[in-house]
């Protein structure tokens, strides 16, 4: 089979497995991203996320992650929920409503890689879901799945940005796709809406100022300087996506494993404030919220509660 026909077959299987979209790019050095990443790190915009400083070369060259790599297959997996939390309560980022996406999407990636090996032959490769030194958004943009918006998220005109990005890096040569153009135009909705000023200028996000950073990545005490600016978010934040005009085209996912635990969406403030270890384990046993641990989530709730007192 030709590299064009192989690409078509892989995209068809990705769609059958439930992926929102699949794009292909050549596994080469990310020359344009190198100085941007270096500058972002030098300015300390990663905060206490020291792991971002590691494996600099691997982040920019997939051939250092998978020897002999020829292609990066980028994939999108929808997580936009059919129903959302009640308005008057502490808020979780929508991606954390259901089962941890690392497990869900990784299972799909393994199935796709197995398909490639069965249909095409002995292909070496690795699957990545937001847990390795891979610049997910850069590869997705390069493969034509969308463009990097002013909030530094990957955006698409068809379905907005509420999806996970994942990759298969393989030693198989496939016909690459072409990038798409930027469609943010003069819109600055995300910059104006960010309550902590994390989007310091169009296309540049200071990770150390993001609510998601404070509520998930930061292990120490949340600084008093950001008190009053969390807008009830206690795990992650969706503000810059919620206000993005392109997300009016978001469609509900069809992944049962992303459905929220019973009662989660109806929890009121009192129930969150009285959350016990037992209830935390019951509700978030398979959730990405476990990353914050019970103590971290309680810290976040107490911090946000204190803002209104």
Give your account of this protein's structure.
The chain is of the alpha+beta class and 309 residues long. The protein folds into 2 domains: 3-170, no CATH class; 189-249 and 261-307, no CATH class. 32% of the residues lie in helices and 13% in strands. It has helices at 3-16, 33-42, 56-60, 101-119, 136-142, 189-193, 211-217, 239-242, 269-273, 277-283, 293-307; strands at residues 21-26, 71-78, 91-92, 125-128, 147-148, 154-155, 163-170, 199-201, 204-205, 233-235. The strands form 4 sheets. A 4-stranded antiparallel β-sheet has the order 1-2-7-4, sandwiched between helices. A two-stranded parallel sheet has the order 3-10. A hairpin with a 2-residue loop joins strand 8 (199-201) and strand 9. The longest helix has 19 residues, at 101-119. The radius of gyration is 20 Å and the shape is globular. The relative contact order is 0.17. The model has no long low-confidence stretch (mean pLDDT 95).
């Amino acid at each position: 089979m030709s590299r064009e026909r192989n690409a078509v077959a892989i995209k068809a299987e990705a769609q059958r497995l439930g992926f929102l979209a699949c794009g292909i790019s050549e596994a080469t050095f990310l020359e344009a991203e190198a100085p941007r990443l270096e500058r972002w790190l030098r300015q300390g915009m990663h905060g206490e996320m020291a792991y971002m400083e590691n494996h600099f070369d691997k982040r920019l060259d997939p051939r250092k992650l998978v020897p002999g790599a020829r292609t990066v297959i980028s994939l999108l997996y929808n997580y936009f929920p059919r129903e959302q939390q009640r308005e008057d309560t502490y808020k979780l980022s929508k991606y954390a409503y259901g089962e941890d996406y690392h497990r869900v999407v990784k299972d799909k990636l393994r199935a796709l890689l197995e398909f490639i090996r069965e249909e095409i032959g002995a292909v070496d490769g690795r699957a990545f879901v937001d847990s390795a030194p891979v610049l997910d958004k850069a590869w997705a943009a390069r493969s034509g799945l969308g463009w990097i918006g002013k909030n530094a998220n990957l955006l698409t005109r068809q379905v907005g940005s509420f999806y996970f990005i994942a990759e298969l890096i393989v030693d198989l040569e496939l016909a690459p796709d072409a990038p798409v153009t930027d469609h943010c135009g003069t819109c600055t909705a995300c910059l104006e809406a960010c309550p902590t000023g994390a989007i310091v200028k169009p296309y540049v996000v200071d990770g150390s100022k993001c609510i998601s950073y404070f509520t998930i990545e930061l292990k120490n005490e949340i600084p008093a300087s950001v008190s009053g600016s969390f807008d009830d978010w206690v795990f992650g934040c969706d503000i810059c996506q919620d206000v993005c005009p392109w997300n009016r085209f978001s469609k509900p996912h069809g992944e049962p494993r992303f459905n929220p635990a019973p009662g989660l969406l109806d929890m009121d403030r009192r129930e969150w404030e009285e959350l016990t270890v037992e209830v935390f384990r019951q509700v978030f046993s398979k959730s990405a919220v476990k990353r914050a641990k019970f103590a971290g989530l309680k810290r976040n709730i107490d911090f946000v509660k204190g803002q209104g007192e």
